[in-house]
Amino acid sequence: MARRRKDDRIHRLRVVGCLDKGFVGTAGRASAAGMGRPPAEPRSPVIACRFHLRGMLSGMDRVVAQQLEQLRTRTSEKWTAYPPDVLPLFVAESDFPLAAPVASALHAAIDRSDTGYIGHDHGAAASAFTRFADRHWRWDLDPARVRSTTDVSVVIVEALRRLIEPGDGVVIMPPVYPPFFELIPEAGGRVVEAPLKRTAEASTGSTDTGDVGYEIDLDAVEAALAAGARAVLLCSPHNPLGLVHSRETLAALSEIVERHGATVVSDEIHAPLTHTDAVFVPYLTVSDAAREHAIAAHSASKAFNLAGLKCAMFVTASDRMSALVRGLPPEVEERTSLFGRIASTAAFDHGDAWLDGVIAAIERNRRLLTTLLAERMPSVGYREPRASYLTWLDLSSLGWGDDPSVVALQRAKVALNSGPTFGREGTGFVRLNIGCSVDVLTEAVDRLARAAAGASARSGA
Ligand SMILES: Cc1ncc(COP(=O)(O)O)c(C=O)c1O
Questions:
Q1: Domain 102-352, CATH number (from 3.40.1190.10, 3.40.50.970, 3.10.20.30, 3.40.640.10)
Q2: Quick one: which atom of ligand 1 is closest to the CA of 235?
Q3: Whole-prediction pTM
Q4: What is the pLDDT of residues 211-268, one digit of tens each?
Q5: CB contact burial 294-313 (16+ within 10 A = b; e otherwise)
Q6: How many angstroms is it from 158 CA to the middle of ligand 1?
Q7: How far apart are CA 305 and CA 94, in angstroms?
Q8: How far apart are the CA of 312 and the centre of ligand 1, in A?
Q9: How far apart are CA 280 and CA 271, in angstroms?
Q10: Residues having CB within 6 Å of any atom of ligand 1
């Protein structure tokens, strides 16, 4: 295992306090000596109070989202889809400036006119990812079992093509990332829905995975597999809820999948953005069975905002699954973008301090949204996510119809993702992206609140 610098360990330490138990200890996502590593098993659900002194310890970047003037010079989807009077809080791009190590690696590539075909990097990107996985999730991976391609969508489609026969059912758990409904048919499969189930209100925020109001419905997955579905497309952490699945849930899922001789593709693109009050568990670590029947999809693209650079990873942990990925046409790997690979390698190896800063900014926004909604739109349903910068809002109380994003755009000039595109369970919901500045988030809620107040005034409510 690579030798790590002592300061790397120190800057990754998080101080975790549990005032009601008079306990102060350390926990974190990474360290060399075991101290500060995430717990192997979820901690006690009574840990209700944690606070972090990360900013007081050297090594965490202060990351501040860009302001609208700068953002509007971007040419990506988020900043070109709507006219300037619309605040775009829809697509999963974030407004943070590029991490400095990533920017320097890309500048250096431009300076040497390094813009040819991808070629071989002798495993540099795969090794960078495995070092990241080890520091953050204690995941001991063999770089030889990691292969790159263009993006996570391609990992999903190519993996499913190898795992299923045409017409086979593939289980998804709506409300879920909308392209899942299309990627499965693209791979020749048939979508089978096993919706997430609602959790009890009482447990909010009290566990290591956090309670975002939903959990995997293991009985529904089992029923779908028993009825003939051959694979599960898992979203872990789960978009749009920021739901971080617990080790127990994933282990139970792996037992069910194994019992039915099925397979799993685990989309873990949001994992690097797991918040400090949750613990991400890679599916391939939950059991021997999981290693034998699953392929995971990883990428630096969501956490480091590199989607346009096109680089993602097939990750396997068994001879069976590695052989299956090695059997893909070489073009699948060769279509990885060179800039994507350069940027991802830098992000995985040198992006930790920036990533900590981004997570801190997102956590501030997730709390700010709670406050803003309580003050301005108390009827809106919202649970703080435990991963990533996507939030799932129940606007059904506003009387804005099945797809409130249409009204939000028309009346509030705020672009949100349409809830129903995440599945039937998204009726009356929207997805709002908080990977933005405090000012933009505040303005967005202001606009929505004014639109809602206007609507109630008009309706005499
Ligand atoms: C769960 C999930 N999977 C996949 C993707 C798309 O990833 P890529 O751009 O690498 O295909 C996204 C994008 O937001 C996502 O949220």
A1: 3.40.640.10
A2: 1
A3: 0.88
A4: 889 999 999 999 999 999 999 999 999 999 999 999 999 999 999 999 999 999 999 9
A5: bbbbbbbbbbbbbbbbbbbb
A6: 15
A7: 6
A8: 10
A9: 6
A10: 92, 151-153, 177, 235, 239, 267, 269, 299, 301-302, 307, 312
